[in-house]
Amino acid sequence: MTKEVSSNRSFGGWQKVFEHESEECKCPMKFGIFFPPQAESKKCPVVYYLSGLTCTEQNFISKSGVQRSAAKHGLIIVAPDTSPRGCNIEGEDDSYDFGSGAGFYVDATEEKWKTNYRMYSYVTKELPNVINKEFESQVEPNKMSVFGHSMGGHGALVCALKNPGKYKSVSAFAPITNPTQCPWGQKALSGYLGKDSDSHKEYDSCLLIKKYQGPKLDILVDQGTKDQFLHELLPEHLVRACGDAGMTLNLRNQEGYDHSYYFISTFMDDHIAHHAKYLNL
Amino acid sequence: MTKEVSSNRSFGGWQKVFEHESEECKCPMKFGIFFPPQAESKKCPVVYYLSGLTCTEQNFISKSGVQRSAAKHGLIIVAPDTSPRGCNIEGEDDSYDFGSGAGFYVDATEEKWKTNYRMYSYVTKELPNVINKEFESQVEPNKMSVFGHSMGGHGALVCALKNPGKYKSVSAFAPITNPTQCPWGQKALSGYLGKDSDSHKEYDSCLLIKKYQGPKLDILVDQGTKDQFLHELLPEHLVRACGDAGMTLNLRNQEGYDHSYYFISTFMDDHIAHHAKYLNL
Fold first, then answer.
1. pTM listed for this prediction
2. Shortest CA distance to B34 belongs to which of B42, B25, B44?
3. Which of residues 63-82 of A touch B (CB under 8 A)?
4. How many domains does chain B have?
5. Residue B164 is part of which domain span?
6. CATH of the domain at B32
7. Complex prediction ipTM
8. How far is B147 from chain A (nearest CA, A)?
């Protein structure tokens, strides 16, 4: 059962936040959900947005301006929190880039984390099931897409690449593209999956692209040229991986933009239009 | 001298925050300023936005989505903090609706507050002077407008009504219209100006409208019908005052909207278009 935490009228629709007991994460989890005006009279596709390090379900819904575009195109937008919280795991709140606010969209296998830190299964399976069941009259269950920012851009790409056909489209703002090769990724993958484990490769977009077989993916990525975290994001690795694999990538270098929500909101319309193109067929 | 605190590329322009030593407030004051892309090649009009209770200069610039509309219409947007801060006045941080974050856009006369709490003079005189001087090559100094939310909607109306001709247009989201008649207003006016002082009337829009003489003011106000603070805002008093005085008021009751930034962002485009109509003549 989901519990409504807040509800605000927005662009003719409703921006709501719900909380539910997550079976995957074994703790209460919150998510934002925007219902466009169209959802009052028909079932609408759902776009999942995965947020970056340190974010809760609030950052995206209050700062991105997504509601405007979503209302225009008739899309429901679901934005979960970025990790389990309050699980009383030693050290869970010690770092901004590991533990709380930094679930990294993996299913942990390390003893300390494996009970709660199952964000991959949470966002790809449990959450869509909850959404499709609880909001049955508003949601078109077989039409979903995914996008995200930074750690969540990594999450979005991994979700799409590991589940061919599940998502109609994918896009990302400044994603971590090659986590086995950057400090944030190495810390998170080692911490959740064990040091030097082969399973790291299962959560690395640049490596997953090599073996992807499925419907054509038309990936849209925006990357600011003044992003302070380019050494973590490695957009040139994504370009190379897609080129080698013959995968369609529209990576747009946005001159002068940084890693913030000012960057995200500027290009939000383009991302929502990209998803609408595939979801509103 | 102003000091740049932050700078983010946004919608082809720049969202910046500056800090300066305010002569009126006798303390450092911050303000947000958005430069649209047009400001790189020509002087642009300036719209001042006054925020509501508890806000800093951050709330509006991160949540309202104003940059998108401002970039479209070529308007600079300036959004100051809502009060002096850190002045070591006894009790300045005790209430959400008085002192820090609650300057109420008046010039205080009570002993304890009168040295610092001069937000009326700050936003109508000092801040425009700073903007016009520091950003001389981007700003068209004689074209300015004002709008705001809640306490800041009150501030915007008062600024326009007390300075005929200074602002080319005025608008407000859910303004406090009649502060001498509501709890927030009575507390603030009594606290800053003294109990039962005649000067309260000088900061009450409904009373100022009666004696306004100047260029025609075409006031746009949006008011959510589910606003939790209707008893503080008293929109029906504004309708009556404007009707009695023959002043043009377009008050739009927005069905189901509350007092939040979800409400403000939904109608931001209309307000910016309203100001652009008068500023881009």
1. 0.96
2. B44
3. 63, 65, 67-68
4. 1
5. 2-279
6. 3.40.50.1820
7. 0.95
8. 20
